[in-house]
Every structure is written in C-alpha cells, then in structure tokens.
User: Which sequence fits this backbone?
C-alpha cells in the first residue's frame, strides 16, 4: 500500500487542483486545528467511511451513533483498534449532537434519514458529510441547500468521483473541448442481486431500536427481510437502484456536460427479475432532455450484471468530434469520430480494497473526505457541495417520479420543478411520521 504521507500529499494536491476561488464560507478555528467527527449509521459504508476519516491527519472520530447497539459496539472496537482512542458510543443522534466538541457529522444511515439528520446537525452547529443520495425526495434536497446557507455550515454529499484526480482531469478535458460540443451522455449500473423473498412480520431484535431506525418515516411493521441493507428496495425508506448507484453516474454526466436541471424526464422499468417484496424497479431506464440540445440516458439492471463496454458501471460522453468514456473508476479513454483510441489515461492511485458495494476503495474514496476536512479548516473548497449534490440527486428522483406516475415529466429548467402535473408534483415531497417533519 502506498506510503500514507505521500498519499495525503497527493490527495490534497488533487483537491487543490479543483480550487478556483477562495472559500465562500466562514470557518471555525485555525487551519491546522484538530477536527472531531461523529459517525452516524456505521453498519457497512459508515464503518468504512469512519475508518477513513480516522486515518486522516489530525482528525478524530470521537463519537459513534447507531440505533443497533451491536453496530455501536463493533464500531467503537474498530476505531479504538485503529487509533488507540475509544470513541464515545450513542444510540440516539439527538443526544450525540449535543456534544460540544464535535465539529462535523458523517451520515451513512438508510436514505430516509439523510436529510433530516443533516438538518438536525447544521442546526446543532455541525458541518455535515452525508452519503449519497443527500435526500429521500426533492423537497428535502431544497431544504438542505437553504439550511447550509442559513446556518452557515458546510454540507458535502459523498459523490466521491468529484474528487478522483483522473475524473477531474477528464471533465476538464471535456470543458476544454477534447470531443467538441458534448450533446449526449450515457451511464449505466449492472449487478446480480438476489431476490429478498417475502418477509414475515416479527418483533425487531432487542439490539435494534426500530422506532428510531424509522425516525422520520411513517411507521411500518418490522419484517425479517428489511434490516440491514434491503430497505434500499422499499419506497418508505429507500430510493431504489436509481439513487443507490445511479446518483454516482448521473452526477458525473451532469458535471461533464455542464448542465443543471432537465426540461423533460421519462422512465420505464419494473421489478421484472423476481416476484418478492422488492418494490422499486430492478430494471430501469431514465432519459433526460436539457436546454441547448443536450440529453442523457441512465440504465440500471440490479439483477443482470452483464457489463456494458466491459464494465459493470460507467459513463460515456458523445460529442461532435469524438467520444470520452469513464468506466466507473479513476480512468478514462478518448476516441475520435472514427472510433480510434486517441488517449488512454489510467489512475495512479491503485485501490487497496476494490469492492462493489463499499465504494471504490480507500485510496480513492478518502480524497473527498480529506477535501471535506480541509474545507472545514478553510484550506479548500468542497468538491461536492450540497447544491451540486441536490441537483444530481434530483435527476434519479425525477426518474423515479416519472416511473411511478407512468408518464413523461416536463420540468422547469430553473429548478427542476414538475410543470402542470399535480399527481407527479405530490411526489416532490414525502409524508413524515407525526412530529418528525423537517423544519428549517
Ligand atoms: N458513496 C458510496 O460509494 C456508497 C457506498 C455504499 C453505501 N453508500 C450509502 O451509505 C448509506 C448506508 O448504506 P449501508 O449499505 O451501509 O446500509 P446499512 O443498512 O448496512 O447500514 C445503515 C446503518 O444505519 C443505522 N441507522 C439507521 N437509522 C439510524 C439512526 N437514526 N441513527 C443511527 N444509525 C442509524 C442502521 O442501524 C445501520 O447500522 C446508504 O445511504 C448508501 O446509499 C454510499
């Protein structure tokens, strides 16, 4: 594995490469001050991210919160093993947020908690690193954009590709015109997920506070095929593959094409591969039209992992002079209009732990965390601030709304709002469990 000091230096350089202006935010503390992070939701992704934060210089993971007490125990043990210092464990985020010494909250809970927890955190004076998708529905994303300004706190969404050095280089090349005007982009994600069966209603395990796990979401009975992970495929808590994985590729496509909000969105698909409790589509396409003759297409296959262009996920940009492909990681290829390969750029950061569900592996995924911490210190500017996170999350959200109402949506290019379709616009927000409404 690469020497840590060199890596940190390299990652800070990568972060620095995208800085174009000084920070817009007011920051607490001096540049080299220790930053203390609290971790919320640490079963899988959250544990990986907490461990990465703990490896950054002068960063302490001082607090850990999970509604599953076994997960708290495991995380406290892992962080202590890694750093020699035991973090304080919590099971209720509202109490953990009272900790005065916590500078930032990292959120890797199920999706229905992302925006409500982010709002609680900025109101408590903490900066926020929230895993993608930043919200469960579009209204929540708008609230977070407003809340970051109102409470003068940083909110970064975990779209780690915004900090991958070669992906940054590829996007810069697109902007400089390497394939001319880019008018179309295609992204995809393919996996071989197994069926989840038909769950039995049972009592939740004693170590899980299922009431707090549901938190802002209207109450549903506990089933034995829901926690952990499978909530992704239920609308009450999850957002389907389109937001689970599509958010990453749609973010890169939107960034590379330099577009904001679409004017037209159409989605088709369904739970085709198996018959079980899974509610969101396992097979889906979403197409988007943007102003100035630009379009995008995303294809998701949760239960047939046949690759596109040899890769299980990726993005291709099509332009008037050629094609640029970014096959999911930190590398890219450029072709001319005759399909001749004219550039082949490979990452210099080989990943130590490549996995499909945990992100791209530490050496790449840690860069966005470094960028977040350096932004808190006032030495960097966020690569994935909440406004960009919201715009990118909105794309698959609109896709899911189109899929659910069964028709094309016309949208306002200024803010993505759905035009003249009250039924579709109803899905712009959600219903909350009484007492859990998001109040900015
Ligand atoms: N950026 C990436 O590459 C990437 C990769 C994987 C997952 N993710 C995101 O990370 C999130 C978590 O995914 P996962 O696979 O780890 O899910 P998971 O279900 O395995 O873990 C979620 C954890 O959150 C806990 N939790 C639920 N409500 C809580 C609350 N109120 N307070 C504290 N803890 C709470 C659960 O008990 C569980 O331990 C998802 O939103 C997912 O989209 C991002």
Assistant:
């Amino acid at each position: 594995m690469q020497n840590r000091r060199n890596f940190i230096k390299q990652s800070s350089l990568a972060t620095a490469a995208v800085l174009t202006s000084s920070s817009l935010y007011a920051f607490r503390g001096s540049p080299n001050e220790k930053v203390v992070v609290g971790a919320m939701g640490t079963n899988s992704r959250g544990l990986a991210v907490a461990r990465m934060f703990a490896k950054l210089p002068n960063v302490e993971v001082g607090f850990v919160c999970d509604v599953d007490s076994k997960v708290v125990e495991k995380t406290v043990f892992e962080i202590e093993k890694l750093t020699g210092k035991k973090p304080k464990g919590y099971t209720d985020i509202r109490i953990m947020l009272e900790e005065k010494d916590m500078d930032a909250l990292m959120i890797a809970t199920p999706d229905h908690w992302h925006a409500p927890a982010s709002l609680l955190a900025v109101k408590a004076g903490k900066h926020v690193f929230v895993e993608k998708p930043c919200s469960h529905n579009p209204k929540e994303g708008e609230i977070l954009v407003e809340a970051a300004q109102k409470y003068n706190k940083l909110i970064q969404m975990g779209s780690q590709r915004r900090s991958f050095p070669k992906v940054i280089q590829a996007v810069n090349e697109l902007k400089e015109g390497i394939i001319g005007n880019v008018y179309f982009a295609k992204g995809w994600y393919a996996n071989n997920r197994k069926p989840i069966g038909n769950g039995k209603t049972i009592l939740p395990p004693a170590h899980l506070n299922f009431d707090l796990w549901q938190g802002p979401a209207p109450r549903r009975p506990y089933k034995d095929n829901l926690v952990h992970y499978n909530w992704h495929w239920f609308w009450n808590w999850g957002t389907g593959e389109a937001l689970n994985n599509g958010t990453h590729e749609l973010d890169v496509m939107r960034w590379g094409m330099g577009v904001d909000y679409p004017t037209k969105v159409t989605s088709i698909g369904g739970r085709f591969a198996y018959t079980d409790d899974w509610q969101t589509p396992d097979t889906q396409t979403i197409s988007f039209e943007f102003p100035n003759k630009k379009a995008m297409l995303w294809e998701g296959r949760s239960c047939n992992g046949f690759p596109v262009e040899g890769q299980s996920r990726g993005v291709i940009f099509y332009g008037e002079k050629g094609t640029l492909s970014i096959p999911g990681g930190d590398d890219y290829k450029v072709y001319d209009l005759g399909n001749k390969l004219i550039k082949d750029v490979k990452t210099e950061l080989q990943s130590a732990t490549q996995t499909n569900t945990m992100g791209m592996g530490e050496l790449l995924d840690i860069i966005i965390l470094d960028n977040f911490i350096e932004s808190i210190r006032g030495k960097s500017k966020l690569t994935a601030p909440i406004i960009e996170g919201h715009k990118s999350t909105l794309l698959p959200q609109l896709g899911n709304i189109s899929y659910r109402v069964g028709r094309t949506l016309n949208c306002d290019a200024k803010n993505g709002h759905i035009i003249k379709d009250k039924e579709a616009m109803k899905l712009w927000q959600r219903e909350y469990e009484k007492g859990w409404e998001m109040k900015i």
The CA atoms of residues 94 and 120 lie 8 Å apart. The domain at 4-160+364-385 is CATH 3.40.50.720 (Rossmann fold). Confidence is low (pLDDT under 50) at residues 1-29, 352-358. The first helix runs from residue 4 to 17.
